[in-house]
Write a structure and sequence with these properties.
Layout lengths: L10 H19 E5 L5 E5 L5 E4 L3 H7 L9 E2 H5 L7 H4 L9 E4 L3 E2 L1 H5 L7 E5 L7 H8 L3 E4 L8 H15 L2 H22 L9 E5 L11 E2 L4 H5 L3 E2 L14 E2 L2 H7 L3 E5 L11 H7 L1 H4 L2 H5 L2 E4 L9 H15 L9 H13 L4 H7 L12
Parallel strand pairs: 3-7, 4-5, 7-8, 9-11, 9-13, 13-14
Antiparallel strand pairs: 1-2, 5-6, 10-12
């Protein structure tokens, strides 16, 4: 039985009432979000379909357990590389079967996006100020674009936390975002507590070489604010290259400077093995007479770490590497830690599955072990 509604007002009043009701209903179905660039976008109240553009963007969505709501991926997720150093992708091979909406590093195709079925309701975009104009992409696609600052675990921690919280707000996963931030904080606190009272004279000088940065590099590639060193209070010989006034997330140092520093312990980012023979960091250490004179080379104190940057920073790898660095530098302080087990624990919590054993097999088992270059 239908209920009839009687209207006793004028037709004009009825029209006004209908418009007001329609406007209220529409307002309840949308909300306004302010992104990392201060841009305001109107998005649906509930977001069920998204795409992630730019380096590391899908990694952050995966951390927040919202990666099942993507409708397409950029080219790196499908084509990848012969050696994959991204734990989030190793743990989620299903990314390879999604449609492609553009090239990696934020080179989006509005035409491909327009052809997606179903259409995304929101586009997340990292490094938006560098890799494509979010306003232009939003205009061309008609889809709200939410810009994110990727950040890092040291001087860019605020940006990272804000991006996780912003994604959580958009996707309705605020509790998970807070849990991931708390997890990062707890790992850092544990690492710092283990090394808090190590005397300065018991902190050997260290150097990270072969650090990947938008591709593989040789031995001179390093990072002054290398997070695994910062979290273990290591004596990073390159730390002076970064100052509070001018933070350096990457540096290419001269061979002469490395010889002057003469670090007691050398760590190698195994991403360098993507380079051809003769130009990767290990071959440089094996063949260059200047490097052969280094104390760490003579003592055989060279150790492998998982790739730090692969489609920007792998935060699970950063913490996994930190526990291994701690184990090497202060074995008594990390006697209870199995670095590989810890790495997989971190990977499972963040990505839903293990990744490091498989990744290490791609790098001939060089990570988390002493490397013999003689």
């Amino acid at each position: 039985m239908r209920t009839k509604i009687a209207w006793f007002g004028s037709p004009a009043a009825l029209i006004v009432a209908v418009v007001l009701f329609s406007t209220l209903a529409q307002a309840q179905d949308t909300r306004t979000i302010t992104d990392a660039l201060g841009r305001e976008s109107v998005i649906p109240a509930q977001v069920d379909r998204v795409i992630c553009s730019g380096s590391g963007c899908l990694r952050l969505l995966t951390y927040l357990q919202a990666h099942d709501r993507i409708v397409a991926v950029d080219s790196i997720e499908v084509h990848g590389s012969p050696i994959d150093a991204r734990p989030y992708a190793i743990a989620n091979p299903q990314f390879k079967i999604y449609p492609i909406f553009g090239e990696f590093r934020g080179q989006d195709s509005p035409e491909l996006i327009a052809g997606l079925d179903p259409q995304p309701q929101v586009i997340f975009k990292t490094y938006a100020a560098r890799d494509g104009d979010p306003e232009q992409l939003q205009t061309k696609t008609g889809i709200p674009v939410i810009a994110l600052e990727y950040g890092n675990l040291t001087f860019g921690r605020k940006n990272l936390n804000e991006s996780l919280l912003l994604i959580g707000e958009v996707m309705g996963t605020q509790e998970r975002a807070a849990a991931v931030i708390d997890f990062f904080d707890a790992l850092e606190a544990d690492l710092l507590a283990r090394t808090a009272d190590v005397p300065d004279d018991q902190r050997p000088s260290t150097y990270i070489g072969g650090l990947g940065q938008r591709g593989p590099h040789g031995f001179q590639s390093t990072e002054p604010s290398f997070a695994p060193f910062a979290f273990t209070r290591a004596n990073n010989v390159a730390a002076s290259l970064s100052t509070p006034e001018q933070r350096a997330s990457h540096a290419t140092v001269s061979k002469e400077q490395i010889v002057i520093w003469d670090p007691e312990i050398i760590f190698i980012d195994v991403a360098t093995m993507r380079l051809d023979a003769g130009v990767n960091a290990l071959d440089q250490l094996r063949t260059d007479p200047a490097y052969q004179a280094l104390s760490a080379v003579h003592a055989g104190r060279i150790y492998g770490l998982f790739p730090y940057n692969s489609y920007t920073q792998n935060f699970e790898s950063v913490f996994a590497n930190a526990y291994y660095v701690g184990k090497v530098l202060y074995p008594d302080r990390f006697a209870d830690v199995d670095p590989m087990a810890k790495a997989e624990e971190i990977a499972i919590l963040l990505n839903g599955g293990p990744a490091f054993e498989e990744m290490n097999s791609q790098f001939q088992g060089l990570a988390f072990g002493r490397i013999d270059i003689r």
